[in-house]
Amino acid sequence: MRPRPFLRAALLATAALLCSCATYHPLPLGNGEGAASATQLSVPANTMPVPELATHRFDPADGLDVTEVAMLAVANNPDLRTQRDGLGIARAQAFAAGLLPDPQLSFGEDLPHGDGGESGVTRAYSLGIAEDVSSILLRSSRKHAANAQAEQVNLDLLWAEWQTIAQARLLFEQVQNLRTQQAELDAEQQALAPVDQAVQAAVRAGNLSYDGASAGLNAMADARKQASDNAVALHQAESDLRQLLGLAPNAPLDLVGQPYRADPDDAQLQEALIDLPKRRPDLLALQAGYRAQEATLRGAILAQFPAISVGLNNARDNTGIKSNGFSINLSLPLFDRNRGNIAIEKATRQQLKDDYDARLLATRGDMHRLAADLRTLDAQQQAQAVHAKQLDAARDAAQQAWQKGLIDWPTYLSIRANALAADTDLIALRQSRSATAIALEALLGRTDFVMQRTPRQ
Question: Between these two residues, 281 and 318, which has the higher pLDDT value?
Fold first, then answer.
């Protein structure tokens, strides 16, 4: 029997398989311009990673409140999009790890020549199929490791989303504070303008020396410098917020409402410390990574045994004798025995264990430190608020007294400068307190955050 039917069948089977193969489609690069306005974007609430965002309606037509800013950051942040792409890669790798290896088909043919066919020598052929059994035996370890790695990437993404929410809340308040401070500094320059004009006129008329006018001249110059420095900081904060939200550099930022207020208490702190490894996505991600490494180590230990491949074959020699048979190929574990890979995987597992222990210890320390900082900042903010209120009242009284000619302008300027400094310090304290409270709340974690998360491709 000639081997042509076997070869024809093999070619037909190969062609049928190729018809179901994936095909290439180009994916052009974008222009990186960002959205021109938040009103052009939609944010599905059911994709939000935390309950308070998932129950909030996204409607930027009337401005962005602090919750809508956090929602937009989660949905449209470029860095999070890249991490979601990484999650897609990890899931594809998990899918690939579960696939069975393809069998290997072999065919060979010997063509006699030189005898003119007189000796009865015929064409010889061999046809065989083989399968890598070792790869099938190691499939379970590969799949467990890949699934755990995909879970780790998913939890790392959740942790990044938490951090993005916290950053959005902080930038929202920072922009609002800087805008408030800018308005206050602009008002301060307007209030100082009459004094500055009077001092400038007195200097030009020779009624006041430059030494005597220095306080008046410096007051307006300091106000201008503070306004300029604040404007630069405001530009940076607005740019950071637009970039976080995936908006174009010139997109409007219509922020409305009050900043986010976080007030984690001691009871929440103690509850979080009890079962911290069950709450924090980054710690859960490290646990998933450790499970992946355990599976990888088990696979390396299994791989020390002989690699096996099994095959079946059909052949005919050049005398016309046909035969069927099988083949078994074994590697002899005499020298390598996969000892190098086993040592590497064991050392990697130890490193992951130590990394997890260090992260857990550092997290507990950070939570205690931030809780202590929050108590200190609360007390300092309360005292500063009283102080700023008193100096604001003194400034208002001094302004009326100066307008009536009851106090000189150096005293008036000194009082105004002290009041402005107190107000500025109060705004900075509020910003610092908010940053500390939001950071502590993010460290506390909530189990329902993880359970309610809707994975995204």
Answer: 281
